[in-house]
Amino acid sequence: MPPSGTAGGLPQWGDSVAALVRPVRQCTLGEETPGVPPVVLVGSHGEPTALLLSDPRTAEVCTAPVSLRVHPTTDVTEALERALTRTAVLRFDPVVCTDRTGHVLGLLRIEDLASAARKSR
């Protein structure tokens, strides 16, 4: 997907999710997982396989599937729309941001996407 615009031939990333990506711990499947979520569980090739999350109401730690992956050049509004069309139980789970090879770059929080989408209007 191309950058959201160009200025003098240079890409502008203002409307992409790149600036919203938050760092996240990663753990290879089979390794001992860190005690504090969020954590992305990755396979032997660095691909995201699951998320270790914490319920904000109960602090209970649970494993969730990776239900949405996006590239850092993905438009903020597109990422938010895709996230909000997931099933209800997964709708507000973080979105995994990956590079072209599928390696994890970080997580996108739905709150951050919504705030950025509103500002871009």
Assign an overall shape. globular
Which CATH class applies here?
A: Alpha Beta
- Tell me the number of helical segments per DSSP (H or I, 4 or more residues long): 2
CATH architecture: Roll
Instruction: Tell me the strand percentage band.
Output: 25-35%
Unreliable runs: 1-13
Secondary structure: helix percent = 10-25%
Q: What would the CATH topology be?
A: CBS-domain
Largest sheet: 4 strands, mixed
Q: Distance between termini?
A: 20 Å
CATH superfamily: CBS-domain
The rounded Rg comes to 15 Å
How many domains, in number, for the residues? 1
Query: What does the average pLDDT come to?
Result: 88
What structural class should be given to the helix and strand makeup? alpha/beta
Cross-sheet strand order for the largest sheet: 3-4-5-6
The H/E string reads: EEEEEEEHEEH
Describe, in plain words, how this protein is organized in 3D:
- The structure is a single chain.
- The protein is α/β, with parallel strands linked by helices and about 120 residues long.
- The protein has one domain (about 15-120): CBS-domain (Roll).
- The protein has two helices and nine strands, in the order E-E-E-E-E-E-E-H-E-E-H.
- The chain has a four-stranded mixed beta sheet with strand order 3-4-5-6, with no helix packed on it. A three-stranded mixed beta sheet has the order 7-8-9. A two-stranded antiparallel sheet has the order 1-2.
- Strand 4 (about 40) and strand 5 form a beta hairpin.
- The longest helix is centred in the C-terminal third of the chain and has 10 residues, at about 110-120.
